[in-house]
Amino acid sequence: MNAASLSQAVVERFPEAVTGSHAYRGDATVILERASLLEIARTLKEDPAFRMNFLMDLTAVDLSAFGLKPSPAFFVSSGVAARPSTEIPDEDPWPGPPGPARFLVVYHLFSLPLKHRLRLQVPVEETDAEVDSVTSLWASADWLEREAWDMFGIRFRGHPNLKRILMYEEFVGHPLRKDYPVNRRQPLVITTGPNGHASGHPTS
Prior knowledge:
By secondary structure, the chain is an alpha/beta fold. It contains three helices and nine strands; from the N terminus they run H-E-E-H-E-E-E-E-H-E-E-E.
């Protein structure tokens, strides 16, 4: 299936759970209600029409600062603001963020036997930043969900071991949130070297 037909197939299968879809720049994308994530993910993996047996990536996006300032050019150091030219036609333009929710949890799926890919987006409110874990379907989700928790503070219900994976356990906050203070001082970390000597220093 191509991007458009793949998105349409998911919409037709789950009309009440899919809140939007698009195929911007050839990438099939569907936006889901949070409560339906596991049901749809299981169908996408197990149904012969989809066979999404490979979870390529799982990540999150903090949209709280979206649109507040111009997007920089590819080379950020140039300081030049860049936007897509209105003179370049786009038959399927990007519709923008799928609603007012602060976060998106994003899943990139691929079918190895059928060679098609699909992006799932699940909007999550800041006040209830939790979705179901998909570790029961794709074991590779384990570390990816831990990273999303560590960096964004989004919890994954049913994860077997949801703890930090990049930052240390005493770290305060979630550093990829747009409101994380980059100069924040972190707690003193005590480490023990191979000689048994303890040392510690505050991190920033």
